[in-house]
Amino acid sequence: MTGRAGSSERRGVIRDGIGVGLATGVYGVSFGAIGVTSGLSVAQTCALSLLAFTGASQFALVGVLGSGGAPLAGTASALLLGSRNALYGLRLASTLQLSGVRRLLGAHLVIDESTAMAVSRIDPSLARAGFWSTGLAVFCCWNLATLAGALGGTAIGDPRDYGLDAAVGAAYLALLWPRLADRRAQLTAVLGVLVALAVVPLSTPGVPVLVAGSVALALGVRAPAGSTEPRSGP
Amino acid sequence: MIWAAVLGTAVGCYLLKLAGLSVPERVLDRPAVRRVADLIPVALLAALAAVQVVADGSRLVLDARLLGLAAGLVALLMRAPFLVVVGVAALAAALVRLV
User: Fold this and answer.
1) For B72, which of A52, A61, A170 is closest by C-beta distance?
2) What is the value of ipTM here, to two decimals?
């Protein structure tokens, strides 16, 4: 399956992926700085970015350790947050069609940004280009930035001064936009926002997004009204 | 002990990612599973955007981020390309903070 996307479209997808990588990678600086101030060594902080490579889980672990929590509790909350990547993988599997070594390597790049840049493309070859370009760009930027932050580089200042926190939110919105074509998707988005914001005061960062995922489950299991969907398989 | 937590998190997070990619295709061919899998990114992206611009730890805060997102929304309505939407949001939030 090679797809019929033109090479200019493909370049556009890759350029967008690199853009997301640069914007997201900047947050690696704050992760690096928070990691070492939470009591981790530079090596431990960098190992998390290299090996766990999923931002919310990493922040959760160093957050728990930094506030004096037990390492096991930190790992548990990190894995709870990391479980959404399993949902992402479920969504990506049929598009990426990975097997063998490529699946083992690709799995490491299954994160918020690479998934969003892949599932927003209908053409499978563009979806794959979006996944790999975004995943690799975020991986490189995130790890270099973590090292810089861990070595004490809060000198570039607060990413918020450059409006990068709003930029990340706008990136998520721009990725969501083309997926709001039908009523069910619109309802899912609105309920997702309401559920997530309702959960924010009751939980730790990362959990609200996970809980909002249950909206997709609740609305998705019901067949569309009046649908003549064929039953699949026995 | 910190190394154990770091490596446990790393191994666990990787296995979760790999597990999702390794689910047999026939499971995904069921209409209900496919609908849920299609709606998951909608719910998660909407929640990620909302939490990113309104949450501050466990509090809800209305600040420059929301104005940045609103500027990005205007750019989206004007059919601006992705990087322009992101850039406009950053610029708007940064300018609001300067004031």
Assistant:
1) A170
2) 0.85
| Rounded CA separation B20/A87 (Å) | 6
Q: Is A15's Cβ below 8 Å from some Cβ in B?
A: yes
Q: Please, which pLDDT band fits residue A205 given cuts at 50, 70 and 90? A: low
Chain A hits for B43, CB-CB cut-off 8 Å, are 188-189, 191-192, 212-216
| Chain A 147-186, residues with CB within 8 Å of chain B CB atoms | 160-177, 179-180, 184-185
> Which sequence spans correspond to the domains of chain B?
25-98
Any alpha helices (H) in chain B, and if so which ranges? 2-21, 25-28, 31-54, 64-77, 82-98
Q: What is the pTM of this model?
A: 0.69
Average pLDDT over residues A200-221: 84
Q: Does B47 sit within 8 Å of A104, measured CB to CB? A: no
Per-residue pLDDT tens over the stretch B23-41 = 876 776 778 877 887 788 7
Question: Which of B8, B60, B92 faces A197 most closely, judged by CB atoms?
Answer: B60
Instruction: Give the list of residues 6+ apart from residue A99 with CB closer than 8 angstroms, or none.
Output: none
A186 pLDDT band (50/70/90 cuts)? Answer: very high
B6 near A44, Cβ under 8 Å?
A: yes
What is the average pLDDT score of chain A? 85
CA B92 – CA B98 distance, rounded (Å): 10
Q: Burial letters for A222-232: b for 16+ Cβ neighbours within 10 Å, e otherwise? A: eeeeeeeeeee
Q: Please identify which residue in the block is written with the tokens 């979760």.
A: B16
